[in-house]
Amino acid sequence: MKSVIALIAASTIASAAFAANNIDKLPSGVVVEHLKQGTGPQPTADDIVRVNYRGTLANGTEFDNSEKHGGPATFPLGRVIPCWTQGVQKMKVGGKAKLTCPAATAYGDRGVGAIPPNSDLTFEVELLGIGK
To answer: pTM of the full predicted structure?
Structure first.
């Protein structure tokens, strides 16, 4: 009986911890798991954003990382893959999130560089700033 009670308690604690991680599931299938809530403004697709990021394939293989390019990346949010445009708009400056991108919201059937066609991707993104 004690093990059943312990199991129920552990399950309740794990559920509460999961719920505490704010998760946005977008109609496109993009999932935004907020790892750290930001306190600044939220960008729009018309903004230029500055981010640190790390991108991995579904098997965990890293294919890109802003550190490999010398630090934060800056780009127009409306001119990147749909997963980024949709997901980063759900973040606030100072926040960090994990974006889970179905292939259709990433590079689809064309693939790019080390990313094979029809690949689901995961990005850890830290939103550092917004510009116009």
So the answer is: 0.82
